[in-house]
Amino acid sequence: DVCSSDLKPKIKEKERNVLIDELKNLMQIEIDLLNGFAGLEVKLQETFLRRDWPELDTLVSKLGYFSGRIEAMEQRRHSVFLELKVSLKLAEKMTFNRVIMEMSGENREELSDLYRKLKIAVIRVRGVTGRLGYYYRSVSDSVDRVLSELLPYRKGRIYSRVGLPRAVEEASLIFNREL
Asked: Strands, E, within 13-114: which ranges?
């Protein structure tokens, strides 16, 4: 039985190494997906500026696909990370940096580098998304102001006799796609 007890730590170490390798792989995939997402957002803004509406629809669909993949990858990465914490007998609430301090130098360096790249990718997506949001809000506000001047009867909210907001009874405005 001495042999079987000697194998247990080696099996645990192999399982832990498999988890570490899987975590590295998932982090790299998520980094690539986030960078791809940010690239598509940049293309989306360029396409909007060119007023290429069919291409805009295509890009929005691609962004939806990327978004789903990123979310799935994030969940999988989190799950593997939790398994790794259990394997290392660490508290569930322990931070990523604290967990990697428990690993060998090579794994610690690789995971630290991937974590840094992942954070940079997330910051890039936030920046591009924020810039897009700001641009679209300013365009929308401009169009609203123009419409308010052109169609003064549509200014403000219209309320029914019982005090509830009511839609304007006029026909909807339809704009040419080239606006």
From this structure: none
Contacts of 82 (CB under 8 A, 6+ apart): 92
If pLDDT is split at 50, 70 and 90, which confidence band does 127 have?
very high
Q: Which 3 state secondary structure label does DSSP give 175?
A: coil
CA dist 82 to 111, 118, 128, Å?
Answer: 15, 18, 30
Q: For the range 110-113, what are the long-range contacts, defined as Cβ-Cβ under 8 Å and sequence gap of 24 or more?
A: 110/24, 111/20, 111/23, 111/24, 111/27
Under a CB-based contact definition with an 8 Å cutoff, are residues 88 and 58 in contact?
Answer: no
Enter the pTM of the model. 0.74
- Of 133, 132, 119, which Cα lies nearest the Cα of 35? 119
